[in-house]
Design a protein that fits this description.
By secondary structure, the chain is mostly helical. Helices cover 73% and strands 0% of the residues.
Amino acid sequence: MALAVALGVWLWASRPRVEPPLPDLSQVDDEIVKLIGLARGKVLHAPKSATAWGHLGEVLLAHSFNHEANLCFQQAELLDPAEPAWPYLQGVELFAYDPEACIPCLERAVRRCSERQVVPRLLLAEALLERGRLDEAEALVARVPSADPYNMLRARLLLGRLEILRQNPRAALTQLEACRDSVHSRKRALALCAGAWNQLGEMDKAVAEQRSAADLPDDLPWPDPYYEKVVKLQTGLRARFLSVERLARERRIPEAIQLLNQTLEKYPSSLEGWMRLGEAWNRAQNLDRAQACFQMATELAPDHAEAWLRLGRVQAQTHDPQAEESFRRAIQCKPHSSQAHYNLGLCLKEQGRREDAAAEFREALRCQPDYDPARTALREIEAIRK
């Protein structure tokens, strides 16, 4: 054993030095450039450190430099062949577009995992299913402990899909029943149930399941300790907005506002930042602050119709007479905006200018014939005339 280790060290030492990759950063936020520079500097300082190479790979993968990330993971795996994270992350990057190539990476990761490290095994099972290797996938899924709720749900979803591939729709429905209510699996489970009912020839049930699936938002990602570490490294403007969206979905509006304020300190000219902050303050019912944000957005982008529209909506809520002008500016920027015409119509109706309001509602319908709010508002005015 000692001889093998010594030989491995000698072989590594005799290899030509590999430079850490440096992607094109010319169009990248300064925050990302700094983070990549720091991670790359650690590799240059310690080129034989698997941890340094792996961390640089994680940083690059977090910011969609996937090819460069995999080069780093390959070096990290050479330096530390016992660590499952490095081949696993290679497999994650390859999975979406090359399931065949990702399988050897995931197999290496699984061999290095303990029985409690289930996530690489499940992703390997998914890749094997993609290639039609059903028995191998089933054997991997069978090793998932039932005491692990999230991973067991993921296993049952895989088994449901496997049974459909084997033309066993009743068995598939049994497996999928437990997956219908989880935010991690419900959309895919319903779509698979539709496939099972289709195999059974019960088309009404298949169509109903498919419609239910279509109405749901995308499933949340499965818990993945390896990839979650990567996600936490995301920085820059886009990563901040993704975090804001997550907080908003979870109704954590004060935290979303705090993050947006911090973001605008770093990116004060971000139109999207001011628009998002205005919307967050609007949801928090702080209309003065919402109005100030949308006003700033119109100053940054005077030709941005959506900024004028949202400013007008907030002004209309406080009965600010400037709302009419804001809606007219929105129409000037985007003449075919049904929403701008409709909101201007509401504004004019509140002022008692019913004929002018009716004209705007008609214009909204001309822009979008199926815009029901404008049709309803127009009918109300016409009913008053009668």
